[in-house]
Sodium:calcium antiporter (Palleronia pontilimi), 342 residues
Amino acid sequence: MISELPTLWLFAVFAVAGAVVVLASVKATGLADVIADRTRLGEALVGGILLGAATSLAGVVVSVNAALDGDASFAFSNAVGGIAAQTLFLALADLLYRGPNLEHAAAEPANLFQAVALIVLLSLPICAIAGPDIAYFGVHPVSVVLFLAYLTCAKAATVVGESPMWQAVETSDTRHDEPEDDSEPDKSVKEPALYFVALVALMGMGGWVISQVGGTFISRFGLSSSLVGSLITAVVTSLPELVTTLVAVRRNALQLAVGGIIGGNTFDTLFLVASDVAYRDGSLYHAVDTSNLYWLGTGLLMTAILLGGLILRQREGPARIGIESVLMIGIYLTAVSVQVWS
């Protein structure tokens, strides 16, 4: 049993599981780019839905396991803490990107719509928390609405990606989403798709191990569930998003990088749906405390600022990055300080 391991072995298992998740995600990013080229679905759409969901799998396993164990705060904070951390990763990618502001170069209607959808989806849990404490068969009605809203937004994002009703103004710094190899559409998508599925399964297994170690951290070291969920397991299970973002930027697949983060965050809202179903002591939303709500608000605020940056499309800002990236870094560091010292 993982919970009975000596402390040193516990940290070693945690590190290995995190490394497996990260390495699998690196390969998955390259395959997602190939799939985007061969299916002609586009980097923003594949990044936002396929890659975003795949790299989020480890996180959903952590939240569901925590909910099954009856720790609502751990399940909730892992989900919303991951959204905030992954949004921060775009700011870090912007800092490392040698071209103009990343949000300027990756102008794409599908990414804008995904950001709007994420704000809508993050607003629903706030309504649930502020509303009456009700649950039918142990599930709050907002979880059903959240799931249906995600499906609706995903379908609408596909329409926006395939038939956009407007285009961003093209500049000399705009990076177009074009296949790297013109022969890609003539090749079969089956082989990379099967390989992609195998990597997703590997990431899910890593997520289960991380959830077990995270629960042991809470009981053995007396840490709060909110702290472990938002700053330890959420960050570790979000590392695939950091790696895939940096790999995508290095491949100059900027729409894939931005779409992967926003789409991954959109998928992460389903962590709350799955956790609410797994949590058997009533409504998950009414079993959490204000620290969990704080991280939800942080993710919502950072998403709104990111959307503003995608619309503003500033070429350069402070320290050669966009002002939205500066603000997102500042907001996240403030949230960490509040969590640690509260």
